[in-house]
């Protein structure tokens, strides 16, 4: 999807849980935080890994000095309890099975969502709670129950226009062409690092520092890209 289409969809449906997927470096997490923290809203972030524990998401008992232990809400319950807040779930496809099952409840419809936590309370989300998740892979890799919690699934294909606005026209064109071909693996972060290094180093050394043994191929492709109507492709190589 183009960015204007993505923004149009998000404006048309301001309450739905949203799954953003696409290649690295296109601004999925930035978009999620921008949407959820608009106005006076707050966005709570969690980056999921295979080692993430349920307690890191929901909460846990923590020591309180002589008072013993007290329950401390995790980011999911903090987002549930603060009116107008939202939850950003980065790399949701990395969630281990236990966390994925708890996400079924956290992302359920607000009118039925509920969790009974170890301190005995049953907590429910504020009516305006909303979650947005990101992933680099394909949504079909998610468990069916988890995938179903997101009524909007939007593919982000390229960096946001604001991120590209500081680039020269030929740089923008080259980077966008990289994202248009799924066989290429040049990301926005990589290109910006190369661009910064190029201010004080040669093109060759800057490219080598970023792309290693692919540096020559990348520079060749970029030179070809400066010429109109010349097809180009960066050969695939193992890193």
What is this entry, summarized?
The protein is an alpha/beta fold. It has helices at 3-12, 28-36, 54-58, 75-81, 97-106, 144-147, 161-164, 169-180, 188-198, 203-211, 215-225; strands spanning 18-21, 43-47, 59-63, 69-73, 86-90, 115-116, 122-123, 130-135, 152-155.
List the topology elements.
Elements: H1 3-12, E1 18-21, H2 28-36, E2 43-47, H3 54-58, E3 59-63, E4 69-73, H4 75-81, E5 86-90, H5 97-106, E6 115-116, E7 122-123, E8 130-135, H6 144-147, E9 152-155, H7 161-164, H8 169-180, H9 188-198, H10 203-211, H11 215-225
Parallel strand pairs: 1-8, 1-9, 2-5, 5-8
Antiparallel strand pairs: 3-4, 6-7
Helix pairs in contact: 9-10, 10-11
If you had to describe this structure to a student in words, what would you say it looks like?
- This protein has two domains: 153 residues, 3-Layer(aba) Sandwich (Rossmann fold), CATH 3.40.50; 65 residues, no CATH class.
- Helix content is 38%, strand content 16%.
- Helix 9 packs antiparallel against helix 10 and helix 10 crosses helix 11.
- The two termini are 29 Å apart.
- About 2% of the residues have low confidence.
